[in-house]
Every structure is written in C-alpha cells, then in structure tokens.
Design goal:
alpha/beta; Lyase, Ornithine Decarboxylase, Chain A, domain 1; 2 domains; eight-stranded parallel sheet; 11 helices
C-alpha cells in the first residue's frame, strides 16, 4: 500500500527517524550507566515499546491504567504509573499485579500514602518530588517527605520527579540548568530519606529536553523520557532535536483551493492535529502545524495551518513562493506542534521506511 492510497487524515510514522531518535537517547544514558525507563504516554504502542526497549526486558512508564493493562497483555510487567494515584484506582492496580504485573504508583499525599501502606495487596509506591514545575510533588526539604515514607513503608520504592518546566526554556544552556536542578532536587530527597534510615532503590528523573541536555546524572538510577521518540516542532524549536528529527506527521487531503487568497483547505483540523499552539512562544510560530509534501519534503516553504476547525484546516501558503500546484484530492503531510496531543486522536500508525510505501500498521491504545 502506498501513502497516497490511505484515507485521510492518517498518522504517519517514519521508522528510520524513530530508530535514530531512540539511539540518540539510549547512547548517552548507556555511557552514564543510567537505566532508561521509556515513557510511552505518547507512543501507546507495543511495537514502539519493543523498539524503545531494544529487545531487552525492561521497565516502562505510562500515564493511564489503560496503557498499563495494554502493555501487561503483551508481557511487559515492570511499569511505573507516573500520575498521582487515587485510592479507588488501587483496585485496578492490584488486579493487574495479581495477574503477574509489577506496577508501581506515585503519590505526594499523606492520606493516600497511608491507604497504600495498609492496602491488603502489596503495591510499590514512589514519592513525587517537585523540582520546580509546581505541578505535582513535594519539595525535597518538605517535612512531609519522611512522613510519606513512613506511611508507605515497607512499600516505599523510591523518589521521582519531572522537570516539565523545561519546555518553557529558550535554549540548551537554560535546559541544562533546569536538568541540574531536577537532578539535585530528587537526589537531595533521596539523601534525606537515606539519612533517616530508608532504602531508596529508585531515584528517577525525566523529561526529554533535560535528559538530552543534562550535565550530570550523579545519584540518578533511571530516566523517564518519551517525546524524544517522535519529536515535534516545539521540541525542535527549544533544541531537544533537529528539525529533521520529527518522525510523526499527519497525512491530509486537499479539499479546497483559494489561490486568490493564497490559501488552501485540508481535511485535518483540530481533532486530527490538536489545537496546541506551543510554537507561538518560540522564534517560529507554526500555527497548528507545518505543511510538507506527500513525501515529507519542505516543498511548500513555510506553509502553515493558520486555522483549525473541527475537521478543517486552513493553510496559509508561503507568501514568498508561488501558490502550490495542488489539486483537490492531493495529499500533504502536516508536522505537529505537540506530537503527544496529535497522536492521541488516532488509533494506529501507518509506518513507512521510505516515505512512499506503508511497511506496517501499528495499533495504538487510547482512553483511560
């Protein structure tokens, strides 16, 4: 099957770029002897997971219990559910663990920690540390840290943090500084717990930007990162990877032409592309996505999706170029701002090795 034969919109995954991105993450971590626990909240695919694990047994990170159940069904059992757990969700975790999984959970709440510690089925739990994002977690010097460990014991498994605020960084030097703050925060929490007599087997940090820019991994046992696999326009803008390292695009069809207005319409709108406008805060605003040719080439210059309706995208053609010679029914590819949100709307990847033929179709799991 050829890409040009696919119904649109469709999610296209370039396997050679995917493999290159995975190697770019795995190589430095192997050199530092730090375990990679890939975050699969974006990929949501057993085929991608197998590539990310390199064919070796290993742990993964997920953001929904639907993902956890899906990966357990394929034999991946070492899983960190990296979203603050609620007591009622422990039932599902216990059920999966009873079937052979080893799912660990996270919390920053003393009452929830007490529930986990007293739960009739043993469930490993980690304490979430706030390293500056001010989302979930407690600060490393918070007195509650030791109280949480006491409530969880003997089910306490370690500490983890996430520098999501690295996405607001402007350059690699700033990301490196955030990476060091991320590392020192979670290591400091582990040191406090160790001094109080607690074993801290896992000290986990993770975001794609900080992992690739980190000056040191001293004290870190594992890294969780996910978007590095696919890349997107925003990650390219902040220097996580290069502009040619984006493996994921949305295939769309031209459904209207307005040469007099220097724009055309495609059948990929807000649902197929997402309404993420993250590149608006960078040096290059790509609207709702950058439009390339069917073969993934930059044939149209800076043609961007300027407006995204539910199922319509309005593409502004590059004003410095002649209007593209596209007919209704011709296909183009849209490079996403935020690959995580774009992929979430689709139920499968159409995988290509040459930007021409569909080499494989990889299902995805969605929902919660």
């Amino acid at each position: 099957m050829n890409l040009s034969d696919l119904p649109t919109p469709a999610l296209v995954l370039e396997r050679p770029i995917l493999a290159r991105n995975m190697a770019a993450m795995a190589t430095p971590l192997a050199r530092h002897r730090v375990t990679l626990r890939p975050h699969l909240k974006t990929a949501k695919s057993i085929d991608v997971a197998r590539l990310a694990l390199g064919g070796r047994p290993g742990g993964i990170t997920v953001s929904t219990l639907a993902e956890a159940e899906y990966f357990v069904s394929y034999g991946i059992t070492d899983i960190l559910y990296a979203v603050g757990i609620t007591p009622e969700k422990l039932v599902q975790v216990a059920k999966l663990n009873g079937a052979g999984a080893d799912i660990a959970v996270i919390t920053d709440d003393p009452e929830t920690a007490a529930v986990i510690g007293a739960y009739p089925t043993p469930i490993r739990a980690m304490i979430e540390i706030d390293c500056g994002e001010a989302r979930g977690g407690i600060l490393p010097e918070d007195p509650a840290l030791l109280l949480l460990a006491a409530a969880l014991a003997p089910r306490f498994a370690g500490v983890m943090t996430h520098a999501g605020h690295s996405y607001a960084a402007c350059d690699r030097a700033q990301i490196a500084a955030i990476a060091e703050a991320e590392r020192t925060a979670v290591v400091r929490a582990a040191e406090r717990l160790g001094a109080a007599g607690y074993a801290v087997p896992i000290v986990s940090m993770g975001s794609s930007p900080t992992t690739l820019a980190a000056p040191s991994f001293n004290g870190i046992t594992e890294v969780r990162a996910g978007v590095y696999m696919f890349g997107d326009l925003f990650q390219a803008a902040i220097g996580t990877h290069g502009p040619d390292d984006i493996a994921l695009t949305v295939l769309a069809s031209v459904i209207g032409r307005r040469p007099e207005a220097h724009r055309f319409l495609i059948d990929a709108g807000a649902i197929a592309l997402s309404k993420d406008r993250s590149t608006q805060a960078t040096a290059h605003d790509y609207g709702y996505g950058l439009v390339r040719s069917l073969a993934g080439q930059a044939s149209f210059g800076t043609a961007i999706v300027q407006r995204a309706y539910q199922e319509h995208g309005v593409v502004g053609a590059d004003p410095a170029r002649p209007f593209p010679a596209l007919k209704v029914g011709d296909k183009v590819r849209v490079v996403p701002n935020h690959t995580c949100l774009t992929a979430a709307a689709h139920d499968r990847y159409f995988v290509t090795d040459d930007n021409v033929e569909v080499a494989a179709v990889w299902p995805r799991v969605n929902g919660w």
